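Worked Example 4.2. Consider the chain below.
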Amino acid sequence: MKIFNCLMKCGARNLILSLSPCVIFQGFDVDFTKLHHTFGAAAVDLDDSCLFSEPDTNRGWLDRLCGMAIAYYKEKTDTSLEYVKVLRANFHPSAGITLYITFEANDLSDGNQTKLYQAVVLYGCYIEVCSCRPKPSC
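Applying the procedure from the previous section yields the following structure tokens:
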């Protein structure tokens, strides 16, 4: 608490308020319009091609990255998922781009129910799926 109070007095209030949603949502579901500073982070426009090369759209690339995330999830949990669609994605610059992707998939081992999943993918000189999990309910 002392550190927080010190930072507030030193004018770091905007930094703390800007980072709080990212910490709370772990990079997913952040409303960047409410932040004073985004430090390069933003939502991905699914129908644009600003992150990836033409003629593909961001959605096309994210579809492929979600497929990689599902393969990663299956390897870790031995659960079969069938990709449905990407819902949203956020990114921030790192040693490339870190993508926080929320997508729908059918859980074939649970009566083919459509569920929400979240994946973190590093995209740069190589592509690495860092995590894939069901979206937390709270």
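The longest helix spans residues 58-77. The chain has one domain: 2-134. Compare this with Example 4.1 before moving on.
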